[in-house]
Write a structure and sequence with these properties.
Strand content: under 5%
Number of strands: 0
Pfam families: ENTH
Domain ENTH: 10-142
Organism: Lotharella oceanica
CATH topology of the largest domain: Serine Threonine Protein Phosphatase 5, Tetratricopeptide repeat
Largest sheet: none
Protein name: ENTH domain-containing protein
CATH architecture of the largest domain: Alpha Horseshoe
Radius of gyration: 19 Å
Number of domains: 2
Structural class: mainly alpha
Length: 206
């Protein structure tokens, strides 16, 4: 009976097409059918799951790569979406941004004949790099942004089981270098964050 009813259930409760929504948000021409705020909210909630986050981030970095050869607006909108997801999206977004950090670093030196466009893209890319390279700045911005939206997603660094492990690793690195640990200045390389996360998963703590 369940197999017979399944097609009808799927028709009644279709899942959002996050890939399509992400492409619509980052398109050259702004959508006339949907508000940007509605799309951002949908994408942030969709990024809480691995599959949804993968579809969304594939589009984001496709658009960022298009920025150099096809359309600056693809890059601008892609960065705008990425920054929103870094603040209000799922943890999967952060991991993917760390993996693709080379693209973001390159966009910090983006060149365009229009100085306003150049400054906008460089500024967004610099902000994204700052968040993914500083675990404490990242945690603060995520706690603040997600605290503003009580109905938003619950996934974040606040209360996350691996946040303490990452913080401990940062302090250990500072002590190893003979420096006094400072929660406002300790930085982690992306590889370190990823390694700590994987070790946490392997140990069964995440």
């Amino acid at each position: 009976r369940g197999q017979l009813l399944r097609p009808w259930v799927d028709r009644l409760t279709p899942l959002p097409d996050f890939h399509k929504t992400a492409r619509e948000f980052t398109a050259n021409n702004p959508s006339e059918k949907r508000e940007e705020s509605d799309m951002l909210r949908e994408l942030a909630m969709g990024s809480a799951h691995a599959v949804g986050a993968s579809h969304i981030m594939d589009v984001v970095f496709e658009r960022l790569n298009d920025c150099k050869s096809k359309s600056w607006r693809h890059g601008s909108q892609g960065l705008k979406l990425l920054l929103h997801l870094i603040k209000k999206g799922g943890d999967w977004v952060v991991f993917r941004a760390i993996q693709e950090s080379v693209v973001l670093i390159a966009l910090r030196e983006y060149r365009h004949s229009n100085q306003d466009i150049q400054g906008e893209i460089r500024g967004h890319a610099t902000a994204a790099c700052r968040y993914i390279n500083n675990i404490f700045a990242l945690r603060r911005i995520r706690e603040y942004a997600q605290g503003e939206d009580a109905d938003g997603i619950a996934i974040g660094f606040k209360g996350d089981p691996w946040a303490a492990a990452v913080k401990a690793a940062a302090w250990a690195m500072a002590k190893k270098d003979g420096k006094q640990p400072d929660k406002n200045s300790v930085r982690l390389r992306p590889q370190t964050i990823t390694r700590v996360r994987m070790e946490t998963l392997i140990d069964g703590r995440g």
